[in-house]
TrEMBL record:
InterPro entries: GntR_C (IPR011711), TF_FadR/GntR_C (IPR008920), Tscrpt_reg_HTH_GntR (IPR000524), WH-like_DNA-bd_sf (IPR036388), WH_DNA-bd_sf (IPR036390). Residues 9-77 form the HTH gntR-type domain. One of its GO terms (molecular function) is DNA-binding transcription factor activity. This is Pyruvate dehydrogenase complex repressor. Pfam families: FCD, GntR. Transcriptional repressor for the pyruvate dehydrogenase complex genes aceEF and lpd. It comes from Ketogulonicigenium robustum. The lineage of its organism: Bacteria, Pseudomonadati, Pseudomonadota, Alphaproteobacteria, Rhodobacterales. SUPFAM superfamilies: GntR ligand-binding domain-like, Winged helix' DNA-binding domain.
Length: 255
């Protein structure tokens, strides 16, 4: 008969399994510092030697990293699926920007649909709370805060879809977005007509999710990202035209 004796799991293995699940589910994030050893051992209800054994195992697997005099952190490498060379390529070519937006539209549309169907009430409360912060930042006319909350809002939808592969892939993409690799989001939020439309688009997304309407949620996300693409196309054309006009002006005043 294909039966085997049950092996009792070591405490350190149980601790390691719990930490790796928190990382997998996106609860512990890249670069996040774990509590001090004594506090963490108390939370798990294990001895400090058992905790050290678990942390050593996770460090050996590249999930955690220890920094002298600073503590133990979730490995930063988990926050990026892209090599520095590839990031530089993305930043150097407009083609990558629009492919990025198409990729986001496909994945985030699906995430919004899944979130409308599978999000918990707490997930929806998080999404709603972030949108309220977006409204407050909008009233204060703070483009930097609006841009940061924009990324938080979209990531909260992906988290609410409860798909860990999608979560980690899109978190990497949004880190590049925050770093301005693809385009300057703050510049978009400085333009009043665009700011107003972006807020209303996010309102439509939030409303559809709160109503648990998957089709409307997906369409709202796709429409929003199509608007972003049109706005970027228009802005880049305007920037090129302005650069040419400046060259003409400089030529006129110097000849």
């Amino acid at each position: 008969m294909p039966f085997e004796k049950i092996q009792a799991e070591k405490l350190s293995q149980s601790v390691a399994r719990q930490i790796e699940l928190l990382i997998l589910r996106g609860i512990l994030r890249p670069g996040e510092r774990l509590p001090a050893e004594r506090e963490l051992a108390d939370r798990f209800g294990v001895s400090r030697p058992s905790l050290r054994e678990a942390l050593a195992e996770l460090q050996g697997r590249g999930l955690l990293v220890s920094r002298a005099s600073a503590g133990v952190f979730v490995a930063d490498v988990l926050g990026s699926a892209f090599s520095p060379a590839l990031v530089q390529l993305f930043a150097s070519h407009d083609e990558a920007v629009f492919d990025y937006l198409t990729f986001r539209s496909d994945l985030e549309g699906l995430a919004a649909e899944r979130a409308a169907l599978h999000a918990s009430e707490t997930d929806l409360m998080v999404i709603g709370a972030i949108f309220q912060k977006m409204e407050a930042a909008h009233l204060k006319r703070n483009p930097a805060d609006e841009a940061e909350l924009d990324a938080d809002f979209h990531l909260s939808i992906i988290e609410a879809s409860h798909n860990v592969v999608m979560l980690h892939m899109m978190r990497s993409m949004f880190q590049l977005l925050r770093e301005g690799v693809f385009y300057n989001r703050q510049a978009m939020f400085k333009q009043r007509p665009i700011r107003e439309q972006l807020l209303e688009q996010h309102r439509a997304i939030n409303s559809a999710l709160q109503a648990r309407d998957p089709d409307t949620a997906r369409k709202a996300v796709v429409d929003h990202l199509a608007f972003v693409e049109r706005s970027l196309t228009h802005q880049r054309k305007a920037d090129r035209n302005d650069a040419i006009a400046r060259q003409r002006f400089q030529h006129e005043v110097t000849r």
